[in-house]
Amino acid sequence: MFKNPKDNNIVSRLIFHLDLDYFYAQCEEIRSPELRNHPLVVCVYSGRNPDSGVVSTSNYKAREFGVKSGMPIKIAKSKLANEDAEFLPIDMSYYNHLSILAMEFVRKIADAYEYVGIDECYADFSRYSGSDFSRARKIADFIKSEIKVSTNLTCSIGVGPNKLVAKIASNFQKPDAITIINPQEVKAFIARCDIEDIPGIGPKNRIKLESSGIESVSHLAKFDLFRLKELFGYKIATYLQNAARGIDDTPIRPHVSKQIGRIVTLKNDVTNIENIFPILSSLSSLVYDTLMTRQLSFKTIIVRVVLHNLRQVTCSRNLKLSSTSIEELQNIARSLFLEAIHLHSLSFLDVRRIGITLSDLSSYTGQNKILQYFAEGSRNGNQESNKNNKL
DNA sequence: CCCTCGATCAC
DNA sequence: CCTCATATCGAGGG
To answer: What is d(CA A360, CA A7) in angstroms, rounded to the nearest whole number?
Structure first.
């Protein structure tokens, strides 16, 4: 049992972060085991020409040749030109099915479970383990073997006293690994991490930090908070400094969707406004379907337009009242699109991609609305420790 | 204080 | 050559 150094009566939490390894590509390997020893690339084809689009995920064999997520398919193909590589189109419904199967077990046994993404979750095992970090490996092994049996998937698990450390730990060794950081090890572990290992620090923020001379996690941990606030604002600065010290109080809580969106890339850039309307209609239907499945209403609609030169324009509207009307959605989407192009005086517009997002979501059954109200209330009463710090 | 928009992250 | 979905923050306007 690890006691909190500040208070002997409070034991540490014991948090898991589970990450399904190279997920989409691994799903394809399970479906077609003969692909296992070949470079395998799962692609998002955009349909503009036979090779347009990007790499979603690749297996480790493909990564050896420099293939990375987000890379244009064309580049990936050139890197694998002399290999017996496989390029497959993304198949979300299949991956979703495997994901649900895999996560089910964790969700059932954990004290609390939090969905983060199709290949990621957090789980609180504090009670389950009695906060005994020496039991963490057994539990992690147990979960890994259960997932292996039910789906044949491998995963990586990070264990720590909070979500932040668990997440960094799950990424520390991959694939098919377990990394456990007990409370006493946190400071040393976090100090030797790269600054970009901290969730929320990507290329841009790294540069921003470097411009103030901050190049290491330990430097960030002791950097003057006021100066950090000038650089990033109150919330982010506080989050970053806490993170650099391995501190994170955010609880594991059920996922609540806050946005539902779809964006499509057009086969050809559209210059004629008329031709956009049917696309907006089908996008409206798509997001509306998801909205209904989740029994939600929307209050804000966002239309985003990506132009030929990849510049993005967005336009949004916040309604007075929540709505569940698809007609309203379609009408507003149209007028927002027109607003967007007028606002930016795009006389000759070249639309490359267009999307609709609904936000400000709430449950539309009265019962749930009341429950949600109380959930919000209890959270707000306890902001300092509860508020989600994530960027 | 609310609304809107862009930036950033990361999948 | 350049996908898709989501979450959060901060700036700027009103």
So the answer is: 40
Domain at A24-92: CATH code = 3.40.1170.60
CB of A70 nearer than 7 A to strand B: yes
Provide the pLDDT confidence category of residue A4 given band limits of 50, 70 and 90: low
Report the CATH fold assignment for A193-244. DNA polymerase; domain 1 (1.10.150)
| Residue A307 three-state SS | strand
Q: Which distant-in-sequence residues (6+ apart) come within 8 Å of A369 by Cβ? A: A362, A363
Q: Which nucleotide is nearest, taking the CA of residue A233 and each C1'?
A: C10
Chain C positions within 7 A of any protein Cβ atom are 1-11
Name the CATH topology of A259-360: Dna Ligase; domain 1 (3.30.1490)
Within 7 Å of a protein beta carbon, the nucleotides of strand B are 2-11
Active site residues of A: 120
- Report how far residue A165's alpha carbon sits from residue A201's, in angstroms, rounded to the nearest whole number: 15
Nearby residues of A275 by Cβ (< 8 Å), 6 or more positions away:
none
**Considering chain A, what is the average pLDDT of its residues?**
88
The pLDDT of residue A87? 96
Question: What Å value separates CA A192 and C1' B7?
Answer: 29
For residue A391, give the nucleotide whose C1' atom is nearest its CA: C8
Domain ranges across chain A: 24-92, 193-244, 259-360
Q: CA A141, CA A157: separation in Å to the nearest integer? A: 9
